[in-house]
Amino acid sequence: MAPLKVLIIGGGISGPALAYWLSRIGANITLIERAANIRASGQQLDLRAQGVPMMKKMGIEAAVRAVLVHEPGTQLIDSKGRVKAFFPAAQHQSEKQSLTSEFEIMRGDLVSILYKLTENRKIVKHLFNTTIESFTQDSESTPNGKVHVTFQDGRKEDFDLVVAADGTGSKTRKMMLGPDAPDPRYSLGGYIGYFSVPSKPGDSDRGTWCHLPGDKIARIIGTRKDCAELTRVYMLTHGTDVALDEAWKSGDLAKLKKALANLYKDGGWECDRFIEALQHAPEADDLYCTPFVEVRLPKGTWSKGRVVLLGDSAYSQTAGGFGCSWGMVGAYVLAGEIATLLPKNPSSPTAAVMQGAKNYEDIFRPIATSNHGGSERFESLMFPKSNFGIWILHAFARLAASLKLGQGMAWDSKMAKWQLPEYPELEREQSKD
Ligand SMILES: Cc1cc2nc3c(=O)[nH]c(=O)nc-3n(C[C@H](O)[C@H](O)[C@H](O)COP(=O)(O)OP(=O)(O)OC[C@H]3O[C@@H](n4cnc5c(N)ncnc54)[C@H](O)[C@@H]3O)c2cc1C
Ligand SMILES: *[C@@H]1O[C@H](CO)[C@@H](O)[C@H](O)[C@H]1NC(C)=O
Ligand SMILES: *[C@@H]1O[C@H](CO)[C@@H](O)[C@H](O)[C@H]1NC(C)=O
After folding, report:
1. Considering the entire predicted model, what is its pTM?
2. Per residue in 336-370, pLDDT tens?
3. What residue owns the CA closest to ligand 3's atom 10?
4. Which GO MF term does the entry hold, naming one (predicted)?
5. Ligand 1 contacts CB of residue 193 (under 6 A)
């Protein structure tokens, strides 16, 4: 049986995780990334819930522990800087998810750890500065059918399986769904932006969040701290700000900085210091700003034939706290379902790929999307605007903290009870190619 030939588009979290699992069944893998280098940027990620046993199953616990960010907890403060509630870091076993998880890691560190898993495998080819132009595929009833891919440089190649791990704005998803399908990104009405600033003595190592009162748009400003020299500033908005919309659409960094600075001007607490740094400190050039969206795809559309969506391209929820966990778990379930079916269909990888992709959606969709759809709760709980609304939020948070309750990282019991499936095909002894 020829090895399964796979193209993975996107070298973030879920792409390299899938490359690892499929390399364990000896697949011939090409992993492509649009950026010129490993895109090891981004701020803090949390490994939560089943993301924790997942990371251990991948054999990377020691590597992850070596670069953990030790955040002692999360606090809410008012616009004069006074602490209103404090939540210590959570243990992952707990059903009460906290904003600070036991495994906080910088995105770049995790991306690098995942890359290293397959960096030296002959059967995995890593290509940077590479994307695809288009693809077609043979009919689903062709037993040995292929996906015919054209790369951006005009090169053509056939694959048994193509996986879109190219993030929330996935272009591959658009190609797969077709030109007439609606854009599945549902706007939650706001933005999150983050950037680094030089630290000052007194910057807290707790995750610190400050709700700013205002009448037009709801604003939160926060900080997290993973190293001595820098403080990472987060700006979260809810509501419409035309200048910010336009700046985001333009993709112009200077315009984005200006729009955010205008929104937080005179906001209280350390706002003035942070917007000064945002506009003038070189450290803040790492500004990353993205709208809050959920990718809401109709049931049965996570794959089409031999093309499958994975990670944020399939089930993104911006800043929902589970993105990297679900990126890694989704990769495992997809690989496991296909690996289980392959030996049963020795003459046709097509059947295993298509059915495996369907099984992956059936099994994982209820988990990956269980927090979706809560836009009203999101709005009223997370983003109070009035002084009174903020006062209520602080009062609730204080009560919750004193009762040691979680703080609204929705965590239903269906999700909490779910266990990672076992896939013996992925656990076999490995060749060293
Ligand atoms: C630069 C960046 C910073 C982030 N920072 C944070 C953060 O601080 N905190 C947080 O919680 N989450 C952050 N995220 C989101 C988080 O990484 C994801 O929610 C989660 O890890 C799921 O990952 P993913 O691999 O599915 O998608 P992503 O992590 O978005 O990775 C997608 C990858 O595909 C590449 N790509 C996109 N389009 C193409 C294409 N057409 N062809 C080839 N490659 C393509 C992208 O360059 C990227 O490397 C960030 C994402 C990115 C891209
Ligand atoms: C993977 O497939 C490519 C293209 O078909 C082929 O050139 C290469 O030798 C294969 N690699 C391995 C390790 O089988
Ligand atoms: C990326 O690829 C394009 C062609 O596809 C080429 O023109 C460009 O020089 C490449 N950039 C880097 C940094 O390799």
Report:
1. 0.92
2. 999 999 998 877 899 999 999 999 999 999 999 98
3. 129
4. FAD binding
5. no
